[in-house]
Amino acid sequence: MAGAAKEQDVVEVILKDHRTMEELFRRMRSIEADRAGAREKFAALLIAHGEAEENEVYGALKRFKDVDNEEVEHGEEEHAEGNEALLALLEVDDVGSDEWDSRLEDLVKAVSHHLDEEERTILNGAREGVPDERRAELGAAFLREREKQLASGCGSIENVRRIVGKG
């Protein structure tokens, strides 16, 4: 895959977001870091990433034989679980509290489980069974939707409440 196409490869783009989420987990756990700032960045990224996957990627991947449709549907269920855990963390005012630590660990557990499972099943299947050109097209569509979501303030508590059906 050529350099420009690799930058757009949907698998690579999604993996890059996963690594950013893991770095933001580290910052939200660190008492020296700007936890509230990390939470704000994480909320926007998690929502934008999940919405972009569901709107632009998952449906397209279901058409390829190497991608397990049940895993794709399970991925959507896990997005919902992660979004609910995110909402619980967004509702904590004191980033130094025991409640923060507890809800953060619930979020880390839900999202880390999803990232691991998605990487092993959906993304490996996509890497093996989806042609390079199609992965690049999906990557471009994913990035467009992700940017649209980010520009709309998708990580706000009001929007997260709406997505999880509590707003």
**Count of alpha/pi helices:** 7
Tell me the major beta sheet.
Answer: none
Share of residues in strands: under 5%
Mean pLDDT: 93
- N to C succession of SSEs: HHHHHHH
Can you tell me the residue ranges where pLDDT is under 50 for at least 5 consecutive residues? none
Q: What percent of the residues sit in helical stretches (DSSP H or I)?
A: over 70%
Gyration radius, to the nearest Å? 16 Å
DSSP, total strands: 0
Q: How far is the N terminus from the C terminus?
A: 43 Å
Structural class: mainly alpha
- Shape by Cα distribution: elongated
Describe the structure.
By secondary structure, this protein is mainly α. It is 81% helix and 0% strand. The protein has helices spanning 3-8, 10-29, 35-61, 69-90, 98-129, 132-151, 157-164. Helix 2 (10-29) packs antiparallel against helix 5 (98-129), helix 3 runs antiparallel to helix 4 and helix 3 packs across helix 6 (132-151). The termini are far apart. The relative contact order is 0.19.
Topology:
Layout: H1 3-8, H2 10-29, H3 35-61, H4 69-90, H5 98-129, H6 132-151, H7 157-164
Helix pairs in contact: 2-3, 2-5, 2-6, 3-4, 3-6, 4-5, 4-7
Short recap of the structure:
With 167 residues, the chain is mainly α. The protein has helices at residues 3-8, 10-29, 35-61, 69-90, 98-129, 132-151, 157-164.
Give me some keywords for this one.
elongated; 167 residues; mainly alpha; 7 helices; 0% strand
